[in-house]
Description:
The complex is a heterodimer.
Chain A: E1 6-8, H1 10-26, E2 31-36, E3 41-46, H2 53-73, E4 81-85, E5 90-96, E6 100-106, H3 112-143, H4 155-161
Antiparallel strand pairs in A: 2-3, 2-6, 4-5, 5-6
Chain B: E1 3-5, E2 10-18, H1 25-35, E3 45-48, E4 54-67, E5 70-78, H2 86-93, E6 98-104, H3 110-126, E7 136-141, H4 151-158, E8 165-167, H5 176-194
Amino acid sequence: MSTPQMVMYDEEFQEINEVIQRLLKEANAKVVFLVDKNGQLISGVGETERFDTTSLASLTAGNIAATGGLAKLIGEKEFSILFHEGEKDNLHISIVGGRVILVVLFDKHSSLGLVRLRVKKSSEELSAIFDKLLKKAEDREKRGVSDFPFAEITDDDIDNLFS
Amino acid sequence: MSFINYASREINCKIVYYGPGLCGKTTNLQHIYQKTAPEAKGKMISLATETERTLFFDFLPLALGEIRGFKTRFHLYTVPGQVFYDASRKLILKGVDGVVFVADSQEERMDANVESLDNLRTNLTEQGYELDRLPYVVQYNKRDLPNIVTIEELRRELNPTGVPDFEACATIGDGVFETLKAVAKLILIDLKKGNQ
């Protein structure tokens, strides 16, 4: 496979949530999401229940992929920040550490400048956590440690999913 | 590339439906959407043109249930089938865990099938994948139409490696769930192998 499998552990999950929770507060945002580039939601804080988070994750990743394609066409590596302005709500989308997408939804109680400033700081922290996560996964693989839940699944387990 | 979250005990996998224009990829997803219990599915998203041709992708999240305490979720995507949307197809293949190739069984679409399958191989290679090493199944759709090619010929042309294949009529749902089940099973078996 071209890309290593994305794995999330409890410890890092907590750390990530602390960072985005703080970002939510400091940027005066409504919702903050983290999405992986393949469209899978990693975590979300704020008024998440008001939104279809799964669809939001998939469309965000599609959006980043499409603008990434545009960037390559004009000779750029990527566009690392996207901003969508609506009548009431705005979306600030940025790429963190080259591999995950940070989405901040905010309204008139915040401003683009404030969001950009706070996102920059949080991105560095998030980037460090994801580096650690990647290293951890690699280390485990090297040592042959596997707490993988699927290692012992049987055909029956799989068939039961569809019954 | 599946995403395993030990914190929320979830496994997410991505399945892509590939095939020539108008072969029935979106119809497959629509049937799955209609026949799945509300608690097991999310919203289906279609980024389509005004004439209902897929422009970027269709997306359907499915939660199949739990395996060993892990929630198993599959994200189903279709690609736009029309030849000129190739850039979009490449993007959607990123991070794919399993592929369904939907072939149009009509005689006049054989060339389009072959072209689309070649395109699939090329685009996967560009992303660093090999079709022969991915969980992969083939569906021969539109078996209810009059001017169709025989299964033997479809197999010879489109499935020389003998991966699991299914006859289907997606408009009424025949073969749709069999196809999905087969690819999901291959993905889970692949995950199991990959970590031993």
